[in-house]
Amino acid sequence: MLFAPALRSEWLKIRTLRSLVGGLTAVLLTTAAFAALAGVDTDGPDFDPLYSTYFGVNFGQIAAIAFGTTAMSAEFRGGALRLSLAAVPDRTRWFVAKAAAVAAPALIVGLLTGLVSLAVGRAVLGADRPGWSEGVRAAVVCTVYLTLMALLATGLTAVLRSGVATLSILIPFLLIVSFVVGDLSGGVADLLPDRAGQIALHRTWAGALGPWSGLAVTALWTSAALVAGAWSVRRRDA
Description:
Distance between the termini: 18 Å
């Protein structure tokens, strides 16, 4: 099977699974909801209007991870992967089609999430609102970041072959390691995929990485997970 039909087939799987559509919807609603709370606390020298606008990404990424995990883990239930590979014998081509089918809707929803969050944040912050230039940059970063996190989960799920195992690793990692251990480990924590990717969501950052180099670090984590996932699909029995 050529790549285009393979991609179309994987896209149909995603479009027809309610849990996947719900996961994408949760990305938008969760992130935008926290943007609406950006104006609750604007006092203090550490207040960052840009990060307050996009603080909900910390929770929206959980929904993005759940989306990527569910999209891949469905292949390991009930012999679905054997049927997929019977239709697309080239395992690498099939995995690339699966990753592309995850990335495309994640990009669209990520962009919508970034723009809606910016509009909501600017509305509630009033005079403290972020400027359009930095806000649009953050919206683009939000788009790419959420897509990378969904793909990171997709690759890791292909390696572990279990959605439960993937979520059990990634969610505590993001909610505990980054917030607790990260603040105690100095600059090394900036190399974690979530902290590096979110640097561009801050107006200022004192770390060694910049906005785009931080996003590149997240891209490297995602690339490693996808390469490992492709290797696992090629080498292990369906």
